[in-house]
Amino acid sequence: MYFNWGSQHSSFLDSGDDATLVLDQTSGSGIKSKTSFLFGSFEMLIKLVPGNSAGTVTAYYLSSNGEKHDEIDFEFLGNKSGQPYIIHTNIYTDGGGGREQQFYPWFDPSEDYHNYTIHWNPSQVVWYVDSIPIRVYRNYQGEGIPYPNQKPMRVYSSLWNADSWATRGGLDKIDWTQSPFVAKLRRFRSRACAYTGPTDTAQCGAPTPENWWSSAMYSYLNVDQRRQMNWARSNYLIYDYCKNIKQFNGFLPGECLKVQY
Ligand SMILES: *[C@@H]1O[C@H](CO)[C@@H](O)[C@H](O)[C@H]1NC(C)=O
């Protein structure tokens, strides 16, 4: 992504870890899981940069390695004091992204820790904020719509300078007099299928009791969850690529014409 993993402030993450991300004029910072996973539930408690966070982006995401990568993102776009953050979500399959959906949070995400969870299984990807599903990307591979289910991913979190685009489209720059900027991570929790090589592919994809995150009850949202998602989307969704016909010259991506819950 945008953070340079060779830089000095990067380190590794194990389940159960807490961490602090720091951005100053010399560097951003990032942390990534030691293990790769193929499907699972990935929870993180995050307290975002307080005060004037304009131009900063804190990211929490899964990504595969190498070319034509898959990626599932939460990104938090900072703002001036008192102005709302944006929760930016995206999903890449085989190197192709452009599937952004953005939300305003219904709370101040810099005041306290909130739970951001990515639940990824062979049927669907769900983005949760404090247990409320805000977005679903379902597997419609049988209809030629790409779905990330072949490549193992690591978990990443980073804080970096994105003031060329993040806040009001790049109008508000980072105020370096406020540096260092700090975001805090707590209790990273991965309940997921660890992937050590191609022989794990079948096992990680199998609907066994160990792979509970892929079980029937996690292959669709239930009625309550659909109601909650409907609430979040009707009140807080501010951008949806599926509504941005211009971006696609009139031809929306296939998944936009499908039910996504
Ligand atoms: C920042 O605040 C402005 C003004 O309220 C708002 O238009 C914008 O969506 C907010 N968020 C970002 C990341 O620009």
UniProtKB/TrEMBL annotation:
GO biological process terms held by the UniProt record: cell wall biogenesis; cell wall organization; xyloglucan metabolic process
GO molecular function: hydrolase activity, hydrolyzing O-glycosyl compounds; xyloglucan:xyloglucosyl transferase activity
Domain GH16 span(s) in chain numbering: 1-185
Major subcellular location class: secreted
Glycosylation-annotated residues: N79
UniProt PTM comment: Contains at least one intrachain disulfide bond essential for its enzymatic activity.
Protein name: Xyloglucan endotransglucosylase/hydrolase
UniProt organism field: Erythranthe guttata
